[in-house]
Structures are given as C-alpha cells and as structure tokens.
Design a protein that fits this description.
The protein has 171 residues and is α/β, with parallel strands linked by helices. The protein has helices at 10-19, 30-33, 43-52, 78-84, 100-109, 120-123, 141-155; strands spanning 25-28, 56-58, 90-92, 113-116, 163-164. A five-stranded parallel β-sheet has the order 1-2-3-4-5, covered by helices on one side. α5 (100-109) links the parallel β3 (90-92) and β4. The longest helix has 15 residues, at 141-155.
Length: 171
Amino acid sequence: CNIDPLQPSAPQELERCVKDGAIAVGELGPAYHGFYINDERAYPFFAKAQELDIPIIVHAGPAQSKNLRMKYGDVLRLDDVAIDFPKLKLVICHMGYYKYDDAIHLTQKHDNVFMDCSWLSQLAGIDRTAMPKYLPVVMNPYFNFLYPLMRYFAETWGGTDKLLWGSDWTG
C-alpha cells in the first residue's frame, strides 16, 4: 500500500488498503516526493496508521536523481514522528544509507523505530545485479555493509529485534 500522506484523503485510503489486506505502508519516499517526513500535514495519516497498528516503511536517505532535493530525505526528521506517534511502527530502509549513525541512534532511542538492511550488499559492491549502473558504489564492503551492521550491533548491544532483513529486490 503506497499512499501520499499529504493528501487529505490519505487516512481514508489507508483504511481501504487495510480492509483489502495491506500489512504495511511504503516505501514512503519524502526525497522523491518533495516533502519532509515530519510535515504536520501528514499527521492525520500517521494517526490513522497508529490507530490501525500498521507499520510505515520510510526511504529516509538520499535520492540519486539530479532534480531531487536531498534535504527531504533527512533521517533525523523521523525523530519528531516517533515522538509524536509513540505506538506507530516506523521502519527506516537501507539502515538510513548513508546516515547510518543517525538511523542507528534513532532505532536505539525509540521503541517504535526499526531498520532494514536492504540494498546494503549492492551499495557495498558485493552484488551489482540489482543495481542501476549509474549509481555510485564504494567497492569496499566495509563502508556500506560491515560498518553499519557492526555499528548497529555495538550500539544496540547485540539486539537483533529491531533489524529486519530485506533484499530490495523482487526478482
């Protein structure tokens, strides 16, 4: 279920999606759609998601296209949403690439914030089959694969309950 949370009809659309069997919302892409995730116009949508106990999956990180503004992907803006909706489950995609430390701190700080590790193997150059050729890759598995995982486990004292596996590849 993918909904524009800024639309006035978003809460009703979310209810319809849940009735049709949706189990999560996302991947919301603030950088791709030109809004901040903590924009209060989205708050009725977040309130409905919290009421329905349906997780929100957020692409909190950069947008590669040249005409998109990276400021909208600031992962730290999720802090407001997590505080204002403490029972709303929020999932940060790609461990917050490239702001791993910020995403890890949010996950550690809030009981309702989680992360997935999708796309990390591609970013690290370990698997390029699912990556567009134009995306930059650091051909060092440490920076985009081992570092965020090691940092996560160090910061959360080895806790695995807040990290979801994901491939970001449907094939």
